[in-house]
Amino acid sequence: MKTLDKNDKDFLLASIRTVEDFPKPGISFKDITTLLGNEKAYSLLMNHLKSRYENRDIDYIAGIESRGFIFGASLATMLGIKFVPIRKPGKLPYTTISEKYSLEYGIDEVEVHIDAFKCEKDKPNVLLIDDLIATGGTAKAAVTLINKAGANCIEACFVINLKFLNGDKEIKKITPVYSVLEIN
Ligand code: AMP
After folding, report:
1. pTM, whole model, 2 decimals?
2. How far is ligand 1, taken at its centre, from the CA of residue 133, in Å?
3. Hey, whose CA ends up nearest to atom 15 of ligand 1?
4. Which tens digit of pLDDT belongs to each residue from 120-140?
5. Which of 4, 72, 124, 129 fits 8 for a cystine, CB–CB 3.0-4.6 Å?
6. Atom 5 (ligand 1): residue with closest C-alpha?
7. What's the pLDDT at 100?
8. Which residues are registered as beta bridge partners of 115?
9. Please, is 182 exposed, middle or buried when counting C-beta atoms within 10 Å of its C-beta (0-12, 13-18, 19+)?
10. Has 104 been annotated as catalytic?
């Protein structure tokens, strides 16, 4: 299960709905709610991720708001390790640290609690998870944030990589990238 064969990948891809022109014209939105609503697809995906990461030295899984919470929290409980949410500004109640990143127009920001990665280890290992990588801006800021918070991001994992946008290339400069499915 460490690698998925073509049939498994095709099955997972077919379970994801594409919604054209959402949230704005020209965007082909990958809707993972149909994967979550297909128990065979969801469990195939999560068992694959479990087998990929169960023998790695990982202390935390960090999920990016909001769809990264679903896969990240599920995997954390399957592996028996801790989960940390990385959120949009103003959502986390305690003291936070943040990292800004550029959008096509303007800037956005991700935040994490200042003590999110405090454990017995000096520099805990963190696996970052999100549903999808497009331009890579959000994930790159999240990796930087994890490292700024005193942890060590060992890999960034995505269910879907929109490969034609080359977002993974930027992130590979700072951490390894794994995507279950690639869309060219
Ligand atoms: P980016 O920072 O450009 O890599 O955007 C990644 C974030 O935007 C992820 O949290 C995705 O959930 C969301 N996203 C961007 N493009 C799409 C898309 N075509 N379909 C679904 N989600 C998307």
Report:
1. 0.97
2. 6
3. 134
4. 899 999 999 999 999 999 999
5. 4
6. 134
7. 97
8. none
9. middle
10. yes
